[in-house]
Design the sequence.
């Protein structure tokens, strides 16, 4: 522990706070159809895309059509990625001559990137050609992030509008998200990363003869262009197996800080966009506050838990424990960078890693697990964080309504049984899915065969895999050997469920709010822009998450913590 | 329905061209132009021969070289009777992923402590020298771990400890801007400097 750690945390928070309003304002203008400073350059491109694809810019859709287009687009994208991976040996940009990807892995990876999960069952450097990386994966880093963003914008419109059937045009929202937000930031960010040392080449790998005379094959590729959108779009699937711990993905403390900022950049600003588009900015501050408090709380737990020396190692004669737990960490990042990243990547739905959670101390490793189980709502994935949080808001308002004995209202919309049912369905279906599927994996031979650790830590590995794919996060306790038919199929199913069983109900809620009248705030309605509501919202999140997952956590990381303290190993 | 399908296919095609081809290839072009060294992997060359990348760690075992951290980056060897894995293989980056409560972790660390201790008897072995990194390709060790190895390297090279220490200092970077990341010593750069000083 070092004072610079605190400085770094403070600088991180200050920059995110400073970028929230400008970017939030920009996105609000963009998705309200106003001109932005990039419009003179990009509008002709945007119009050309609509002309080619037959999109009518001003034709808006009902929630059902919006969802229909979204699902169809995701389906086509998944099939295309699958085909590219299977056929990569017939396609260009394959300097290493890699063969086609096996069917179960190709299916898992296709689903993974099209659901914004980026679960890494594949090992990039040894499995995927540059063509597969660029057109099969990186494309979906843009598309799946823009899809999440589009859903969030559609939901915001649902709250902002009244007595209408439409919530926007999916393809217009998608195109604008990519052209005006994701691409410009990626272009600047990619060049900064190259400057820091991230490779960007389509040449093949280089053979080196090391100083001691051994042969080392240095794998290169178009890494920077993919790295930046991996964080910005909260995707997380690495170019290399070691993800953002790999020195070519993340070479310096500065590249690390920038990549880490990209993870929260859009999700944090989107909360501000919400406040502006519904015309009630204090409401957005309340949500932002709840997310911020959860962020500080989880960061503190992870930081202090990880700073404790591992009692199993301190007893080794001649071992110097002062550096803390360095297993699975890079020297240039050390404790603070690794822990901050762990909290942001799990609070958001990013899932990129710069240190290995599997080797974190039990309670520190539990923090990303809990963040993911709560649904990645601490700022969250691009779009997914906001709409996931709004599900909890609906429940919190409903509970407040029960307590004060009035019809619950949120930002001028009456919340009725249909919306509460849909929100509960989305929350419960996904959490039940996580628990049921991980129970199946932990009692079947095929599931247990993949374990990288014995004892309670093994259970944590399985839990983490299902929670992570369910929340479309994609980080892992990587000791689990998951590239086999059992896990490829089970986890692909979990990813699809976690993505679309949330998106469809939330779009339905958006449609139902858009159709409602906006009522003036009535006397005695529970105010949702106060500290009390922030506290209630946090309580609802923690209680729902706690009641659902605490028993499983108690058997995994919590038991491991006490076992380790008592000197037990596995 | 057919119209919606056509829209989805065309949109995917257009976006694949923009974000999957135009964007990475344009960035490649610009990057090769302004940062040709970084964009091609920060390679270190001696004449025409590539000896490595300043960002990718290498395995060192000889006493006259500074040693890196243990590495779990090993592509499985296909040849029968191949020598035991030594790590630092960029074809298979990755970590041990051992749990903190794992007996295997304790075995690994104990063995690494034992093999390092003769280098500097009486001093405890710094943690990073006995634990595997996240990437298996960590190019750095802590300045503490470099200091720990100074006596061995100085002895093997017939140099004074202070001469070696001066080189360690040259290859050590502090925290970026004073607060980002951790101080670190680049092992390959340091070993190259030692060889150059020896006239190799």
Sequence:
């Amino acid at each position: 522990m070092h004072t610079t750690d605190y400085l770094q945390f403070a600088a991180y928070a200050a920059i995110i706070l400073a970028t929230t309003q400008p970017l939030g304002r920009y996105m609000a203008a963009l998705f309200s159809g106003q001109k932005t400073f990039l419009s003179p350059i990009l509008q002709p491109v945007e119009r050309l895309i609509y002309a080619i694809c037959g999109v009518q810019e001003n034709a808006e859709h009902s929630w059902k059509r919006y969802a229909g287009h979204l699902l169809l687009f995701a389906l086509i994208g998944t099939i295309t990625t699958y085909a590219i991976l299977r056929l990569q040996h017939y396609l260009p940009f394959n300097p290493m001559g890699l063969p086609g990807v096996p069917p179960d892995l190709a299916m898992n990876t296709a689903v993974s990137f099209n659901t914004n999960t980026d679960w890494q069952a594949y090992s990039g450097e040894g499995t995927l050609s540059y063509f597969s990386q660029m057109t099969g994966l990186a494309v979906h880093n843009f598309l799946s992030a823009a899809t999440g963003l589009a859903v969030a914008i559609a939901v915001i419109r649902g709250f902002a509008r009244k007595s209408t059937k439409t919530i926007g045009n999916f393809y217009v929202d998608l195109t604008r998200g990519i052209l005006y937000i994701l691409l410009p930031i990626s272009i600047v960010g990619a060049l900064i990363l190259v400057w820091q040392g991230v490779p960007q080449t389509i040449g093949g790998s280089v053979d080196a003869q090391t100083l001691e005379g051994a042969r080392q094959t240095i794998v290169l590729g178009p890494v920077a262009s993919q790295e930046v959108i991996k964080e910005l779009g909260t995707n997380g699937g690495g170019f290399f197996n070691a993800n953002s711990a790999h020195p070519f993905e993340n070479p310096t403390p500065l590249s690390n800080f920038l990549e880490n900022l990209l993870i929260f950049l859009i999700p944090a600003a989107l909360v501000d966009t919400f406040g502006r588009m519904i015309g009630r900015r204090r409401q957005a501050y309340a949500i932002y506050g709840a997310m911020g408090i959860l962020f500080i709380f989880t960061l503190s737990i992870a930081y202090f838990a990880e700073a404790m020396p591992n009692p199993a190692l301190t007893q080794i004669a001649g071992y110097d424990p002062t550096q803390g737990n360095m297993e699975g960490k890079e020297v240039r990042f050390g404790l603070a960078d690794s822990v901050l990243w762990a909290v942001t990547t799990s609070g958001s739905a990013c899932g990129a890693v710069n240190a290995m959670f599997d080797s974190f101390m039990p309670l520190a490793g539990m923090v990303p697990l809990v963040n993911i189980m709560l649904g990645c709502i601490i700022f969250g994935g691009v779009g997914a964080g906001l709409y996931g949080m709004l599900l909890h808001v609906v429940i919190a308002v409903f509970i407040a309504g029960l307590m004060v004995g009035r019809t619950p209202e949120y930002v001028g919309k009456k919340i009725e049984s249909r919306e509460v049912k849909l929100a509960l369905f989305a929350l419960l279906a996904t959490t039940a899915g996580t628990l049921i599927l991980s129970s199946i994996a932990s009692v079947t031979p095929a599931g247990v065969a993949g374990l990288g650790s014995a004892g309670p830590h093994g259970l944590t590995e399985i839990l983490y895999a299902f929670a992570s794919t369910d929340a479309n996060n994609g980080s892992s306790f990587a000791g689990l050997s998951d590239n086999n038919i059992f896990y490829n199929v089970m986890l692909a199913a979990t990813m699809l469920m976690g993505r679309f069983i949330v998106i469809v109900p939330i779009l339905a809620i958006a449609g139902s709010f858009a159709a409602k009248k906006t009522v003036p705030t009535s006397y005695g309605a529970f105010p949702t822009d106060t500290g009390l509501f922030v506290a209630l919202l946090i309580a609802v999140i923690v209680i729902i998450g706690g009641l659902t997952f605490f028993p499983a956590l108690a058997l995994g990381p919590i038991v491991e913590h006490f076992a380790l303290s008592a000197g037990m190993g596995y | 329905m057919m119209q919606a399908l056509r829209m989805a296919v065309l949109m995917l095609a257009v976006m694949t061209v923009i974000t999957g081809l135009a964007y990475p290839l344009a960035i490649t072009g610009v990057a090769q132009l302004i940062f040709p060294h970084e964009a091609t992997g920060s390679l270190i060359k001696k004449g025409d021969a590539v000896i490595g990348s300043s960002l990718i760690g290498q395995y060192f075992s000889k006493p006259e070289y500074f040693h890196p951290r243990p590495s779990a980056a090993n592509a499985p060897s296909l040849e029968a009777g191949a020598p035991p894995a030594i790590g630092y293989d960029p074809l298979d980056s990755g970590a041990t992923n051992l749990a903190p409560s794992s007996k295997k972790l304790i075995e690994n660390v104990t063995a690494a402590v034992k093999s390092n201790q003769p280098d500097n008897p009486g001093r405890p072995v710094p943690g990073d020298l006995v634990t595997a990194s996240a990437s298996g390709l960590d190019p750095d060790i802590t300045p503490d771990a470099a200091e720990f190895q100074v006596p061995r390297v100085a002895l093997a090279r017939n140099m004074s400890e202070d001469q070696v220490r001066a080189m360690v200092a040259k290859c050590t970077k502090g925290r970026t801007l004073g607060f980002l990341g951790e101080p670190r010593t680049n092992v390959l750069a340091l070993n190259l400097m030692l060889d150059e000083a020896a006239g190799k």
